[in-house]
């Protein structure tokens, strides 16, 4: 997210959020599933608080600025990022929450995952309508 003064932040004059390129599907294609998860885990380690082993507000604030050049994030931006993925409501992101969040934020990867799950279910259980006759 951009700072409040940034021209890419949605405003009344410019209601569209900034566009971004979703690199996760390309990474998945190049690295495979295990490789992608490994890279997400590496990203988690770059952003986490080393003492606590999770991504905290402070570690995300500090490391997003240093590692990702996102120093213009507001405190509210950082809080929203943590809240979006914090499934256990402990105020931080563990490695699993971070990886799930990255998948959820990638529409193309989510669609591909849904297709793979559907194919696996159909392969495992077949067409239920054929069995009833």
TrEMBL record:
<dbReference type="InterPro" id="IPR018247">
    <property type="entry name" value="EF_Hand_1_Ca_BS"/>
</dbReference>
<dbReference type="InterPro" id="IPR011992">
    <property type="entry name" value="EF-hand-dom_pair"/>
</dbReference>
<dbReference type="Pfam" id="PF13833">
    <property type="entry name" value="EF-hand_8"/>
</dbReference>
<keyword id="KW-0106">Calcium</keyword>
<feature type="domain" description="EF-hand">
    <location>
        <begin position="73"/>
        <end position="108"/>
    </location>
</feature>
<dbReference type="InterPro" id="IPR002048">
    <property type="entry name" value="EF_hand_dom"/>
</dbReference>
<protein>
    <submittedName>
        <fullName>Calcium-binding protein PBP1-like</fullName>
    </submittedName>
</protein>
<dbReference type="InterPro" id="IPR044205">
    <property type="entry name" value="KIC/PBP1/KRP1"/>
</dbReference>
């Amino acid at each position: 997210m951009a700072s409040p003064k940034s021209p890419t932040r949605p405003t009344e004059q410019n209601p569209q959020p900034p566009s971004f390129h979703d690199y996760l599907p390309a990474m998945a294609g190049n690295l495979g599933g295990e490789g992608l998860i490994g890279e997400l885990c590496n990203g988690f380690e770059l952003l986490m608080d080393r003492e606590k082993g999770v991504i905290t507000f402070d570690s995300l604030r500090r490391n997003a600025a240093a590692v990702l050049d996102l120093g213009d994030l507001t405190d509210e931006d950082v809080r929203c990022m943590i809240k979006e993925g914090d499934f256990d409501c402990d105020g931080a992101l563990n490695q699993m929450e971070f990886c799930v969040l990255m998948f959820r934020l990638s529409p193309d990867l989510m669609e591909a995952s849904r297709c793979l799950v559907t194919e696996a279910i159909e392969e495992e259980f077949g067409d239920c309508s054929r069995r009833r006759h």
